[in-house]
Design brief:
The chain contains five helices and 29 strands. It is α+β, with helices and mostly antiparallel strands. The strands form five sheets. It has a 15-stranded mixed β-sheet that branches. Bound molecules: zinc ion (2 copies). One zinc ion (ZN) binds next to loops. One zinc ion binds next to loops.
């Protein structure tokens, strides 16, 4: 062996040893760092946003947050987190998760995270934990935050598995639940459990609407199947100003909730939903009476959830509001959804109620276009189905369509109702009830009405109710328009 070769091997060996030491020393030598912050939220700080800076050193592999506060007196201190890419409202790049009041502890690392939170590298720099009090007892809230920063190598980063945009390409009427929650916000079921239950309930599609996070949307591809379309959405949630659903989003889209009901702000955020082909729906506008009452301008929205869970007086108010807006000339979509959080027994059971949509395919684009055109009816549960058709001369219109009526023509309306218990049907226009009829229990009811040419309404819609008055089915309007001569 020559002296030259011996020297080369000698130094190469030393570099290898030094390199291994450089890799090994930080993980072996550093222990997790604990950062503790404490404070008091005064009783007059309701709905204020508190951002707590946390310095995260390079080489951190996991961040763990523990929130402690006195829950007595109904205190709720909601929690979320932003990474060094920023926390300014409307700039979602730094968003790393939100659990509202549903969790008091969470973690994030490169591969995985608590439900509601977004996995990925824990970048060095200033992170911000967001605390948002939505209920404060008169004595205020004493809180303590313990943040644990775990050093180590990051490893392979999380890869999203978004749901496929198409389940099948056949046109048809498809049944869906447009509002639901899993462990990714304040629901009690896993995404797997919800998908299994959806198939058992005969649902063709679900729209995922977790509160203020897109974390569930990052993994719906794991649970999609040929007979179940999973569509991304978000329930944009403020306790102060109400809830609304952003439906039909890209899995990466996050719609911010941190603004008051100024028209300029809400218009900008609804525009973000429209930009990806989605719809903005006002949720449970009168539900409950003390908080969550809807306070944004209705003119920015595409529709109203007139039916949330089991039929009740608050739904009746929402239906009356939608009806009044229709009469004023606003063509808003009506939707029904369960807002399910837990398995039965619950007034909010998956698929009860549900929205049935006429779509060109069982796909995100097909369902969103069907909803956008008002091609939808709402039913209390699975067995109920209906067909509503209006004809004038040679023209025919289904729900959501416009019927062009030549001068002097009457309009013939046909309703075929399936699977409903005994009750009453009413045909309605802007002037109120145009006609009514009985429902034969559980069979098929066919009703035919003729509306004379004089004084035709601007729209037609149907309500089906039990003898006690609970809604069993409800259609969006067929629009009636005098045909140009
Ligand atoms: Zn809500
Ligand atoms: Zn909800």
């Amino acid at each position: 062996m020559s002296a030259r070769r011996k020297t080369w091997q000698h130094w190469a060996g030393w570099w290898l040893v030094l390199g291994l030491l450089a890799l090994a020393v930080p993980t072996a030598a550093q222990a997790p760092v604990e950062v503790v912050r404490q404070g008091h939220v005064a009783a007059d700080s309701l709905y204020q946003l508190f951002y707590l800076p946390i310095e995260v050193p390079a080489g951190t592999t996991e961040i763990r947050v523990q929130e402690d506060y006195d829950h007595a007196g109904g205190n709720v201190l909601n929690m979320g987190i932003y990474d060094p890419r920023g926390y300014q409202p409307g700039t979602p790049a730094g968003f790393r998760g939100w659990s509202g009041g549903a969790k008091t502890t969470f973690f994030i690392n490169a591969q995985t995270a608590s439900t509601g939170y977004v996995p990925g590298p824990v970048g060095a720099g200033t992170w911000h934990v967001l605390l948002y009090p939505s209920t404060i007892a008169p004595t205020g809230i004493n809180w303590k935050l313990t943040v644990t920063l775990v050093p180590g190598a990051a490893g392979q980063a999380f890869r999203p598995t978004p749901a496929p945009a198409v389940a099948n390409t056949r046109p048809g009427w498809y049944q869906g639940d447009l509002h639901l929650h899993t462990l990714h916000s304040d629901g009690r079921r896993t995404p797997q459990e919800l998908a299994d239950e959806a198939v058992a309930q005969g649902l063709d599609f679900l729209i995922s609407t977790e509160h203020n996070t897109n974390s569930a949307n990052l993994s719906w591809g794991t649970y999609a199947r040929p007979n179940l379309l999973l569509i991304n959405g978000e329930e944009v949630t403020t306790t102060a100003f109400g809830h609304w659903n952003a439906l039909g989003l890209d899995y990466t889209t996050l719609i911010d909730w941190r603004y008051a009901p100024r028209d300029s702000a809400i218009a900008r955020y609804v525009a973000q939903v429209h930009a990806v082909g989605g719809l903005a729906i006002i949720n449970h506008p009168f539900f409950p009476d003390t908080v969550n009452r809807f306070r944004f301008g209705v003119r920015h929205f595409d529709g109203i959830e007139v039916w949330n869970g089991r039929w009740d007086a608050r739904n009746e108010r929402a239906l009356a509001w939608w009806n009044a807006l229709l009469r004023q000339g606003h063509s808003l979509l009506a939707v029904a959804a369960s807002d399910t959080h837990t398995a039965a027994p619950s007034p909010n059971q998956l698929g009860r109620p549900r929205t049935v949509v006429r779509a060109s395919s069982l796909s995100r684009a097909g369902i969103m276009q069907g909803l956008c055109r008002g091609r939808a009816y709402l039913v209390a549960n699975r067995p109920i189905g209906l067909t509503l058709t209006a004809r004038a001369g040679t023209q025919t219109a289904d729900i959501g369509d416009t019927l062009a009526v030549a001068a002097g023509h009457a309009v013939r309306v046909t309703l075929a109702l399936r699977g409903a218990p005994a009750g009453t049907v009413t045909l309605r226009g802007e002037g109120g009830v145009l006609a009514h009829g009985p429902v034969a229990a559980r069979g098929t009811t066919a009703l035919h009405w003729r509306l004379p040419a004089a004084g035709l309404p601007h729209y037609l819609r149907v309500e089906v109710r039990t003898p006690a008055g609970a809604v069993l089915a409800l259609t969006n309007p067929i629009w009636v328009l005098p045909a140009p001569r």
